[in-house]
Design goal:
The chain has 196 residues and is mainly alpha-helical. The chain is 76% helix and 0% strand. It is built from seven helices and no strands.
């Protein structure tokens, strides 16, 4: 079921995907990519804090679940519950996203800036963060598959190797992955085994 996190992610990725298709949009994205990334992290984790507080209020309203909260129980149980259910999927995807921000520019520099424009590592990281865990695994598989299919098609049609930028793929692929995660993959047994 889509919640605020999903709608927010779809909105941000939709804007990035749409803006990346036009020169003016790419110019705006090129100036604000760090702000978009940081704003998205703040928005998602603010929502998770709101959900944690709502969960605490809900538990404190029931005589049965009150026993899981202080003074009947240490706060540790509640914190471990909300961290594992609410925060951990985004903490994992944030760690992968930050690793990408660290790794992709170095790879790009090593290969003479052939692969990415300056802001692209942030859009890759943003997409990984917003699809969450375990969605980022599906995202990377779909993105790499699409990129290889495009390269193969260009090679077959033009009979030469062409440098293709994934700039227009970061947001659009993440939109697709969030939707298939929400409406299909999350209903499967193996999906819950990938999660936390």
């Amino acid at each position: 079921m889509l919640d605020f996190s999903s709608y927010f992610s779809l909105g941000v990725l939709g804007l990035i995907s749409g803006a990346s298709q036009f020169e003016l949009g790419r110019s705006i994205l090129g100036r604000h990519y760090r702000k978009i990334f940081i704003f998205s992290i703040i928005a998602i984790f603010s929502w998770q804090v709101f959900l944690a507080l709502a969960q605490y209020k809900l538990w404190s309203a029931s005589p049965l679940t009150q026993l899981l909260l202080p003074p009947h129980q240490g706060i540790d149980y509640f914190l471990s519950f909300v961290i594992s259910r609410l925060f951990l999927p985004y903490l994992i995807s944030l760690a992968i996203a930050l690793f990408m921000i660290f790794l992709l520019p170095r790879l790009n520099k090593k290969f003479d800036e052939r692969f990415f424009e300056t802001e692209e590592p942030y859009f890759a990281a943003l997409a990984v963060f917003l699809v969450g865990h375990p969605g980022w695994l599906i995202y990377l598989v779909v993105l790499i598959s699409l990129y290889l299919i495009l390269h193969t098609a260009y090679f077959i049609l033009r009979r030469e190797a062409v440098r293709l930028s994934p700039y227009r793929l970061w947001g659009a692929t993440a939109l697709f992955v969030i939707l298939i995660n929400e409406y299909w993959l999350s209903q499967t047994n193996w999906w819950s085994r990938l999660g936390v």
